[in-house]
Amino acid sequence: MNALDHPLSAEAIQTAAQALATRRLTGRVGGALPDPCRPTTLSDALAVQEAVSAELAQRAGERVVGWKCGLPGADTWVLAPLYASTLYRADDSAGDGSDPPPAGWPVWTQQGQVKVEPELAFVLGRDLPPRAQPYEAEEVLAAIASAHLALELIDNRYDEQAPVYFADRLADGLVNQGLWLGPAIDLASACAAQVLDITVAADAQALLAQHGAHPAGEPARPLYWLAEFLRGRGQGLRAGQVVITGTYAGAPWVPVGPTLQVRFGHLGTVTLRFQTRPRG
Length: 280
What we know:
The structure is a single chain. By secondary structure, the chain is of the alpha+beta class. The protein has a single domain, classed as Alpha-Beta Complex (Fumarylacetoacetate hydrolase, domain 2). The protein has six helices and 14 strands. The chain has helices at residues 10-26, 42-60, 137-142, 166-171, 187-191, 221-232, and strands spanning 64-73, 76-83, 87-89, 105-107, 113-124, 144-154, 176-185, 195-202, 205-213, 242-244, 253-255, 260-264, 269-272, 274-276. Strands 1, 2, 3, 5, 6, 7, 10 and 11 form an eight-stranded mixed sheet that branches. It has a four-stranded antiparallel sheet with strand order 9-8-12-13, with no helix packed on it. A two-stranded parallel ribbon has the order 4-14. Helix 1 packs across helix 2 (42-60). The model is unreliable at 93-98 (pLDDT under 50).
């Protein structure tokens, strides 16, 4: 058996978390983690992910305010935390009732562009705490307070040439750099939106037109899985947390600076701009 097959020590998990937290705070990228602290199992990857959240809380006062998730695969668990400092609400830039920043929402960019994922977001209206009894889908659905149009913001904190695997990306939050939370929409319509025609334009110039389908079919299904998965780990979900469940159109690059219009089929259109967040 290779030494990397053994579970990471607490010291190795902390070393990995410190390195990944620094990349998230600075926007810098790097190669795969050194072998002694590199996760190779899902359990180790989640342990590092949780340690990153703790490190960010200690160093920057960061808070987990939601999750991205998807249905699991044979050898994948799809979940990663969303953080308060990079949850941008369309009607409130700083949580204090102020207007959105005139230059646009700050994002890490590459060559003047950023990747976004058109998604639906669900905001919980009540807690789904850890307990002995499993959660049924109907109970999770009843805990949802609202649904929203949303754009997940993507950034790769590993070098493009780095030979990384799923465990590496799970430890680092599955390339999430934040979430733009748009307007509320009808909850029943959101839960039924298995397909959506997604169009993206910049300053009224068409960039993308795609017949999109939700990767889980029913958009709320990954949330049902997440609630039960976290319950089984002695965690839970809290009222007010935001959960996104998968993109309808991959992760297209969009320019930073121009005014963007993203149409989510019959559910509505959002208009916004981004500005480059300096790295380092």
